[in-house]
Specification:
74% of the residues lie in helices and 0% in strands. It is mainly α. It has one domain. Helix 1 packs antiparallel against helix 2, helix 1 packs antiparallel against helix 9 and helix 8 packs antiparallel against helix 11.
């Protein structure tokens, strides 16, 4: 396969996954913003959304205050935001056009229809009800695209590079969501485990469509260390860090066998995956959740760069 084709497939799926993640970030911020005043606390859930989306500097270069109107417009369709939801869908479609023969018709139609729908929307006039519908639409596009790829693509290099991009991006997004919730959203005046903390962790689980599955595994209610355990160390949870790296390890081993050699990406994924397998939640909290997640994000970025240098150039 041409490196250019692999690169387009890798980034195509990353941008689709990123668009879904941004929609989920806004969804959790919207849920927190609509909590009863008794649970509202003093936190700014819209500013935390900017932190999770990793666009604080760009946002405050264009806006003075982080409120619902400014944040939602900037993350959805901000003209000065190259990683807005609209920009992600547009870039994904651009990459898809370059590799249409490597994709199935179903995958192309899902992306093209989503892009056409984006052109018709008037983001400036969104009401809260419009916003909720739009976020559901973006999540549905990603789910349909992922399902279309899984159900219709041949299990060749095209499929595996598409999966690589999705998995690297998903791991990054889950880690960012956890890190910012733990260190930014809960006000310093609120106790861990208090009413506000409970509603915020519930909103986070809803943001990754994991609230019901969390309750199937943990019977003791919603607790920060159990949510962290669920989204980091439970392989049964498809958005957990260990689940993403289990799949990344499998895909990269397949590519190593396919191309007859291993490289830095295989070594890095095994190192991170082994670290997750040998980790327990008590040790993680003793050493610091933020420190762990910051290191994980660095390692995940290094893996993405190693994949690019090894296969995409």
């Amino acid at each position: 396969m041409l490196a250019r084709t692999a690169d387009n497939l890798f980034w195509l799926s990353r941008y689709v996954e990123r668009a879904e993640s941004l929609a989920r970030i806004l969804d959790v911020a919207l849920r927190l913003a609509t909590l009863p005043s008794a649970y509202a606390g003093t936190s700014n859930e819209w500013e935390s959304a900017i932190d999770i989306a990793a666009c604080r500097e760009a946002f405050f270069a264009n806006h003075d205050v982080a409120n619902q109107a400014n944040v939602t417009h900037f993350i959805i369709a901000g003209e000065n935001n190259p990683f807005s939801i609209r920009a992600c869908i547009e870039t994904a479609r651009h990459n898809a056009r370059a590799v249409r023969t490597a994709m199935t018709t179903e995958m192309w139609e899902i992306l093209n229809d989503a892009w056409n729908e984006m052109q018709r929307l008037k983001f400036q006039s969104f009401t809260s009800k419009d916003l909720t519908k739009f976020l559901s639409f973006v999540k549905e596009v990603s789910l349909r695209f992922d399902g279309g790829a899984y159900r219709t693509m041949l299990r060749t290099d095209h499929f595996w590079f598409q999966r690589l991009g999705m998995l690297v991006e998903r791991a990054d997004n889950t880690a960012r969501l956890l890190d910012v919730k733990y260190h930014v959203v809960l006000p310093k005046t609120e106790p861990v485990g208090g009413g506000l903390d409970y509603f915020q962790w519930s909103a986070l689980l809803r943001a990754v469509s994991a609230l019901n599955s969390y309750h199937l595994i943990y019977r003791g209610g919603i607790k920060p260390w159990l949510v962290a355990d669920f989204l980091i160390l439970k392989p049964e949870q498809p958005r957990s860090l260990i689940s993403s790296y289990e799949d990344l390890n499998r895909v990269l081993d397949f590519l190593a066998e396919r191309y007859g050699r291993q490289g830095p990406s295989q070594r890095l994924v095994r190192q991170t995956y082994a670290g997750l397998q040998n980790l327990d939640i008590d040790t993680l909290f003793q050493t610091g959740l933020h420190e762990f997640l910051a290191q994980f994000l660095d390692d995940n970025n290094r893996l993405g760069m190693a994949i690019s240098e090894q296969y995409l150039q």
